[in-house]
Each structure stands twice: as structure tokens, then as C-alpha cells.
Design a protein that fits this description.
Layout (H helix, E strand, L loop, with lengths): L13 E9 L3 H14 L4 E7 L16 E5 L8 H11 L2 E8 L2 E2 L2 H8 L5 E3 L2 E3 L1 E2 L5 E2 L2 H6 L4 H7 L2 E3 L5 E4 H6 L14 H14 L7 E2 L3 E3 L18
């Protein structure tokens, strides 16, 4: 169910829609909203797709017309492809920014997309967490508390590499690809790789530009281990 009316003129001039599918993880959702509240431009929107949370996701923080909440009502054990596609259908913008709840968009990355005219942008990642107030923290001692491996930090510092699950893309190209293949729903794995491969084929055919690298974004350390118990994995409903 939508939580905000869309009667303002700015809604029709959206440049980017940040789309995040989430299952439970209620506290992290509100940390994200506190983060977005301070940095989200007027021509961006945040679309949270609740993929079956119990209790249903509600917002402690309000952003205004730029924040929207929808539910998939999909009971399959892995339904992120469906959730991402529903978010793209709802998006009223030129670009969709797909990401996961354990990722955090930097203000620089959002602004880069707002000023972007290409087809696809991908992002290097750094380790970080959001505080209760939605502030980005990269203090190594705090990251260790959240499960960052000390040996990995010694080898790579704050660099977390890149992942196919987070990108910005022209919505018209997302639609041209048919979005994520929902045949992946029901069993975890392969959906991000498949989508990236199909975009590569579009580029090879000359129908899309090669992706460009944007500014760094952030990712929580080791969300699969999740030593703080903040996350619920979409594949285990």
C-alpha cells in the first residue's frame, strides 16, 4: 500500500528511483530512511518493496512524496526478481537504482546519477555501517563489531569490491530487457548474474552503452554472518 500522496509537481520530474526490496530488517529500514532524509534530492524517490515482512514494514521516519512503500505479497522463498520488477513498474523516473538493504548509497553516488546521461552506472563499494541516526560509520573498530574480518581488512582496507546487485540504469533499458527473470523466483541464486549478462549482450549488439563507474557506495560487513542480527535474508521466508 502506498504511504504518500503524489500530487506535487516534482513527482513528474523524477530523475532517479532508488529501489530496495526488504524482508523484515525493520531497524535497518529506518536507519536507511534517516540516512536518505538528509541527502535525497527533490528529483529522486525511494521505493521500499516489502517482500512479506511480519509484521509489515512501517516507517518511523517520513520523507514526504519522495518516499513510497509497496508490498509484493509473494510467498515464494526467493522472490527478489519479482520485488525488483514491481519497484521498476512503480518508478516514475528516468533511472532506476537497484540495491539491497545491506547497501548504503553515498550522497556523491546519488548526485552522480542525478547528473548522469549514460545508460548504466556501477559502483565500487567500501565497508561501512549506518548508525541509529542514519550516519555513515567507517571506524574499523565499529566495523569489526559488525563482523568485518580483521585479516580481510589488513589485506584490503575499506575496499569491498563491486557487486552486480547494485547499479543505476535507464528505466527504458531495464524495460527493454524485461527486467529480472522471474523464473529465478523460488530458488536463490543467479538472478543478478543473468541480468548483468543480458545487459552485456545488449551492449554487444550496440543497443546500450558500456557501463561507467560511479562514486563509491557502502556495504555492511558480512551481512550473511550478521553478528548484530539486523538482517533477514529474502531467500528464507
Amino acid at each position: 500500500m502506498e504511504t504518500q500522496r503524489q500530487g506535487t509537481e516534482e513527482v513528474w520530474n523524477m530523475k532517479a528511483s532508488i529501489i530496495i526490496a526488504v524482508l523484515n530488517s525493520h531497524e535497518v529500514v529506518n536507519r536507511q530512511l534517516r540516512h536518505f532524509k538528509g541527502i535525497i534530492p527533490n528529483n529522486c524517490e525511494v521505493i521500499i518493496i516489502d517482500d512479506g515482512s511480519e509484521p509489515s514494514i512501517t516507517f518511523n521516519e517520513k520523507i514526504d512524496y519522495r518516499l513510497k512503500l509497496f508490498a509484493t505479497h509473494d510467498e515464494r522463498p526467493w522472490s527478489q526478481p519479482c520485488a525488483r520488477n514491481r519497484g521498476a513498474e512503480i518508478a516514475q523516473s528516468e533511472y532506476v537504482l537497484m540495491t539491497d538493504i545491506d547497501h548504503v548509497f553515498s550522497e556523491e553516488a546519488i548526485n552522480a546519477v542525478v547528473n548522469f546521461n549514460g545508460d548504466k552506472m556501477v559502483f565500487p563499494r567500501q565497508w561501512a555501517v549506518l548508525s541509529d541516526e542514519g550516519k555513515i560509520i567507517q571506524d574499523p573498530e565499529v566495523l569489526f563489531e559488525y563482523g568485518l574480518d580483521t585479516e580481510l581488512y589488513k589485506q584490503r582496507g575499506l575496499h569491498a569490491g563491486q557487486h552486480a546487485n547494485t547499479f543505476a540504469m535507464k528505466k527504458i533499458l531495464y524495460d527493454m530487457l524485461g527486467g529480472y527473470k522471474e523464473s529465478f523466483c523460488g530458488k536463490y541464486g543467479g538472478d543478478d548474474t543473468d541480468f548483468a549478462r543480458r545487459y552485456g549482450e545488449l551492449h554487444y549488439k550496440g543497443l546500450a552503452k558500456r557501463h561507467v563507474h560511479g562514486p563509491a557506495i557502502y556495504v555492511y560487513p558480512n551481512p550473511r554472518k550478521d553478528v548484530k542480527g539486523l538482517f533477514h535474508k529474502l531467500r528464507f521466508k
